[in-house]
């Protein structure tokens, strides 16, 4: 089986202006980074800047939307459908981000429905999972992330186009949950999916800590928030070489 390619996602969240897009894309386009064989880079601007960013961005980097509607579009004011993203040739979408789960009450089932629908439309999905601080303090981390992953697994059989992003701020540097998640996939979905699915990490990743994090065995990349808006994002992309040099 082919080794899992390092994945670096930049989630711009609800930040920026058209001028910021130009500035970010400029430093990304000018950067010397490892080849597409070593790292897959996907940046996720807010919806309104997707086309602008896509039009300006170097061809070896892709774009992701930060969300999409759970099913076919229609009378759902304010939503963006998976079909619209496909129509704009946006290849990726982030679903189930912890901020949407916490602030907009997106449930495990709702996120799982979104993942299944987006995949069925041909999108690739960065599916986010992770526990709250309270759940972590209650010792229920694996229970929570297993339930989130189980909900997805019940509605998704083909994991080829899924990247699983685990993002709890408290867990920087532990790597334990990634190992647990891969074991969960192995036992509950199958060894091939466990071996091939990229499990990435999000939570205060920056230019200073990325190399140490990238060295962890079950960690296949990052979903970066704040630092993806800054030139240090290039250093995070370059941390892919930690993986290729240890392969
Ligand atoms: O989507 C990214 C994660 O929420 C991490 O964000 P952060 O790098 O700003 O901590």
From TrEMBL:
Please report the name of this protein according to its UniProt entry. Answer: Triosephosphate isomerase
Q: What's the family?
A: Belongs to the triosephosphate isomerase family.
Q: Which Gene3D superfamilies match?
A: Aldolase class I
Listed A to Z, the keywords are: Isomerase
Q: Which species does this protein come from?
A: Triticum turgidum subsp. durum (Durum wheat)
A Gene Ontology biological process noted in the UniProt record is: glyceraldehyde-3-phosphate biosynthetic process
CDD domains in the cross-refs: TIM (cd00311)
Q: Which Gene Ontology cellular-component terms appear in the entry?
A: cytosol
Protein's UniProt keywords contain Isomerase: yes
Please name the PROSITE patterns in this protein's record. TIM_1, TIM_2
Could you confirm whether the keyword Isomerase appears in this record? yes
Question: Lineage, please?
Answer: Eukaryota, Viridiplantae, Streptophyta, Embryophyta, Tracheophyta
What would you give as a GO molecular function for this chain, any one?
triose-phosphate isomerase activity
Q: State how it assembles.
A: Homodimer.
Pathway given in the UniProt record: Carbohydrate biosynthesis
């Amino acid at each position: 089986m082919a080794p899992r390619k390092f994945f670096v996602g930049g989630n711009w969240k609800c930040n920026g202006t058209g001028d910021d897009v130009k500035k970010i894309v400029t430093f990304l386009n000018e950067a010397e980074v490892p080849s597409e064989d070593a790292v897959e880079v996907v940046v996720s601007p807010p919806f309104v800047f997707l086309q602008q960013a896509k039009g300006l961005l170097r061809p070896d980097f892709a774009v992701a939307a930060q969300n999409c509607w759970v099913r076919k579009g229609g009378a759902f004011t304010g939503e963006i459908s998976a079909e619209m993203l496909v129509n704009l040739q946006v290849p990726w979408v982030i679903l189930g981000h912890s901020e949407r789960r916490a602030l907009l009450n997106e449930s495990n089932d709702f996120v799982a429905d979104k993942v299944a629908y987006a995949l069925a439309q041909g999108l690739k999905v960065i599916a986010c999972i992770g526990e709250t601080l309270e759940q972590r303090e209650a010792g229920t981390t694996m229970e929570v992330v297993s339930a989130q992953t189980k909900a997805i697994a019940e509605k998704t059989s083909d994991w080829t186009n899924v990247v699983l992003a685990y993002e709890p701020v408290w867990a920087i540097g532990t790597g334990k949950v990634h190992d647990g998640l891969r074991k969960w996939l192995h036992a509950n979905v199958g060894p091939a999916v466990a071996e091939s699915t990229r499990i990435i990490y999000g939570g205060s990743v920056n230019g200073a800590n990325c190399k140490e994090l990238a060295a962890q065995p079950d960690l296949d990349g990052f979903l970066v928030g704040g630092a993806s808006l800054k030139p240090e994002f290039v250093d995070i992309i370059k941390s892919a070489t930690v993986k290729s040099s240890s392969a």
